[in-house]
Each structure stands twice: as structure tokens, then as C-alpha cells.
Write a structure and sequence with these properties.
The chain is α/β, with parallel strands linked by helices. The chain contains ten helices and six strands. The chain is 46% helix and 12% strand.
Length: 239
């Protein structure tokens, strides 16, 4: 159906409070010559160029700049997780003819954040980060994986998580999904407590020709919890 995707470059976009390092299992598997994990502004290695109240569209324009002007990629397949999935959706809506395809992982067309959590990321960012990471893994993995993830990543400034989640909270492209006509793969962990499976089912129902893969024994960080299953799902879809 779309075997022309086989050789396309892959770009991975991380979620709230994360960095490109979250995609290491994917970049290693697909080869760093072909797979790129960018940092959003104010995360990882990337300087912050956005206003204190940034929207998903602001992040999207910055990501577009990274992908096309800095990396100079031709018709890449864009993979996004959570906030990064919202950015991927907006890239498809704003710059669709420049993309080769779309991979949406643990995300939704709308990403409302619980008001208490949003406030906690402002008032007690360290504790809120740990609480959020705890919710982001399937219960079976939370014990072992939360500390690893908090250590593994270069921490963004405490303020970043709040800005990321505030952008998610007002994001809504539900009414525009019918405008997307790219090959699209949707992946969600069956135990995702932050962007539940119904969000992915909604994307699947409203993006024509999309494929949906649900991965068991995984939560919101499905690509970290079950990297091989996610990599194989992407590989099969690309083939």
C-alpha cells in the first residue's frame, strides 16, 4: 500500500517534560543515519525560543524549522508521543504535503490535563514530575522505570513541564482530522492512563486509512516499556 515509506527518514518528537533521548531504543533500532529524535525548544540540547505561554502550534513551527531547515529532510515520516503526537498532527495539518507519513504514539486529538496536575506542575514541579511519570507507566513497570527515566534524561527547567502541559490542555484538532490524508500508524499501550485507548480509537476512526496497534503490558510510555514490539509494529507498517 505504501511501500514507498521503506526508505523515508524517520523523525521522533518527544512529549511533555521529555527530551529526544526518550527515543533511544527507536533511533538505535532504525539506525541514526535514518532516524532522528529532535528536542523541542527548552528541552534537552535545544535553546528555548518560545514565549512563556506557548501553544502546540508554536512548538510545531519550531519542530518544522528543526526538521526541514536544520536536518534538511525530504518527506520524512513524523512520529510523535503525547505532546509530540499533537505536534505531529499539527505538522500534518499545516505542512501535510512535506510529510511522508505519520506515527501517533500515546496521543490524542485533544489532550486535556487534570486541573490539579496542571497546578502542581506550577507550584511543585519536582513532585509533579514524579507523579506524572508514575502515572505514565503501566503499574507493573512504574517501580523500576520511573527512576531510570528521571536519571536518563537531561532535566528541562522545572517551568517547562508546566508550559508543555498547558499547551496540551488547550490543544484540540478533533474537528480537523478528516483533513489528514497521509499514511498513518497509531500506537497505544492498553494500560495508558494519561491518553487512554479511546483517544487512539478516535484518531483511527477519523483519519482515513489509518492503522491502529494496541500493545499490551504497556502504559503511556509504550515505546520505552515495550520497545521491541513498538519497533516491530513501525517496521511492519513501513514495509
Amino acid at each position: 500500500m505504501h511501500n514507498h515509506l521503506r526508505n523515508k527518514p524517520l523523525v521522533f518528537i518527544h512529549g511533555s517534560g521529555d527530551t529526544g533521548r526518550v527515543w533511544r531504543p527507536q533511533v538505535d533500532y532504525f539506525d541514526p543515519e535514518r532516524a532522528f529524535a529532535i528536542d523541542l525548544p527548552g528541552h534537552g540540547q535545544r535553546a528555548d525560543t518560545l514565549p512563556p505561554e506557548a501553544s502546540v502550534l508554536d512548538y510545531t513551527r519550531a519542530a518544522h524549522d528543526s526538521i526541514w531547515n536544520e536536518l534538511g529532510l525530504q518527506r520524512p515520516v513524523i512520529a510523535g508521543h503525547s505532546l509530540g503526537g499533537a505536534v505531529a498532527l499539527m505538522l500534518a495539518l499545516e505542512y501535510g504535503d512535506e510529510l511522508g507519513g505519520l506515527i501517533l504514539i500515546g496521543t490524542g486529538a485533544r489532550l486535556r490535563v487534570h486541573p490539579d496536575l496542571l497546578e502542581a506542575t506550577r507550584s511543585a514541579p519536582e513532585a509533579a514530575t514524579r507523579q506524572l511519570k508514575g502515572l505514565a507507566f503501566a503499574p507493573a513497570h512504574a517501580e523500576t522505570m520511573v527512576d531510570d527515566m528521571l536519571e536518563e534524561q537531561v532535566k528541562p527547567t522545572p517551568y517547562m513541564l508546566h508550559r508543555d502541559l498547558a499547551a496540551c490542555n488547550v490543544f484540540d484538532c478533533m474537528a480537523r482530522l478528516s483533513e489528514i490524508h497521509l499514511p498513518t500508524l497509531i500506537i497505544c499501550g492498553t494500560e495508558d492512563r494519561l491518553t487512554p485507548v479511546k483517544y487512539s480509537q478516535y484518531l483511527h476512526e477519523h483519519i482515513s486509512g489509518s492503522s491502529l496497534r494496541l500493545i499490551s503490558d504497556a502504559g503511556h510510555y509504550v515505546m520505552c516499556e515495550q520497545p521491541l514490539l513498538v519497533n516491530h509494529a513501525i517496521d511492519e507498517w513501513l514495509a
